[in-house]
Amino acid sequence: MSDAAVTSPRRARGGGGAARRAERTAVSVETAKYIARNIPNYEVLTEEALTVIEANAETVLAEIGVNFVDNPDALARWKAAGAQIDGERVRIPRGLARKLCSTAPSEYVQHARNPERNVVVGGKNLVLAPVYGPPFVRDAAGGRRYATMADFEKFVKLAYMSKWLHHSGGTVCEPTDVPVNKRHLDMLLAHMVLSDKPFMGSVTEPSRAQDSIEMCEILFGADFVRDNTVMTSLININSPLTFDSIMMGALEVFARHNQASIISPFIVGGAMAPVSVAGTLTQVLAEVMAGVAYSQLIRPGAPVVFGTFVASIDMNSGAPTFGTPEASQITYGAGQLARRMGLPYRSAGSFCGSKLPDAQAAYETANSLNMGLLSGVNFMLHACGWLEGGLVASFEKFVMDADQLGTLHHFARGVDMSENGQAMDALAEVGPGGHFLGCEHTQSNFKAAFWRSDLFDYKPFETWDEEGARDTVALASARVQKLVDTYQQPPLIPRSRRGCAPMSPPRKPLCRMLSAKPRATRWPRASAPRR
């Protein structure tokens, strides 16, 4: 962790003075509230199709089953619940998984250390979070390289400064210059002190999930964490139909402590699932039901999210493809299935397979973001920064995507049919043959009438040419630098001064956690990013 990330104001002798001064002098970073849709969801499946897929998923669970590997405790829990166990294969009788899933909440609040940044996951809401998991980063100056902790901290700062992002995310890149047994502590600390938005916990090993809980107890207070959800974390299923002990161990920790988990199959159609839309949806539903049901075996009422990561495959190269119509159909259909289960839904993102933030990246990303909005997604991971199939987190694409997320906010508002929205006074004032630039209605509404990019260049050609004829990547590079240069760390203000319960004394100093004896000595270079 860099010195800049851990620097905090010194406590005054009188107690509380430094915090009060920091609160008065802090620069307020504008963050839009999470999206509340005022538009209908797009539904691609008929009632008959949904019924068939649900019945087929029950058949998969009852007759084919799912594997819970290297996890005898999970097998024992399933057996006690009424499932049939054959080695590591778990066959779940029809209706049992859905019954267990019924105790999961339809929405929940994830608390941020700044209560003004709290988010509600579920219902008609959409929470946007950054890219997650790339081992590489890219920028215009340095090109493609392994990610470092300095890169990670820079992404956290950009997410904090981005108006349209509601969430700080988790592993925004994989800092390979920090040992794997300690990097989760550094990453989580960066989210805690460099931003005051909600964040995600570690899932790469059950003990690291427990470390995440204990660090949150230091930040929020143990009593607050016991009674509230302060993390939403990603639990991937090893599709097809396999639940490994690492992911399930992390799920067990988070569920036991009432922290939220996204139960997310990792689907590349034709490789990890059938090539057909209906077949893939059947597998997705079966896997999610088994995962959600297991979370409820750990703790009924634990918050969980119906997740799916969907890509198709290029049958020539074997590479995943993004922004395709088949992926859209699966995303729309999975949203319908999630709503029928009464669960929050996670999918979509700024997906693209391009190596650079170019036209291919823009087309594929636009398709992916829009399908997420229209499919009813409640938590959108990878909303900005994704490049090269998730192997790369790009600084320029991060700010390009973060800028475009504003269009989702504006489109989700729907059409204003108020008296002001109908604009009859403007039509009467201008009449035939006039123009609306100077009328009273335009003067009253022009500041908020249209969404406007903070990145794109709308100047006349001559001005654009005189200023260097910069393309979007060049503009994005300049914006990255501007955001980093103007960043100010949000003060760590006690929750009692934010209108919340006082923080309880930490059970373990943070420095002790960061200097704990390593559990392993591996230094992995690059691994597959979490989806």
Automatic annotation (TrEMBL):
Keywords: Methyltransferase, Transferase
Annotated InterPro entries: MttB-like_sf, MTTB_MeTrfase
Region (Disordered), start-end ranges: 1-23
Keyword Methyltransferase among record annotations: yes
Gene3D superfamilies: Trimethylamine methyltransferase-like
EC number: 2.1.1.-
GO molecular function list: methyltransferase activity
Keyword Methyltransferase attached: yes
Protein origin, superkingdom: Bacteria
A biological-process GO annotation: methylation
Protein family according to the UniProt entry: Belongs to the trimethylamine methyltransferase family.
Protein's name in the database: Methyltransferase
Source species of the chain: Yoonia vestfoldensis
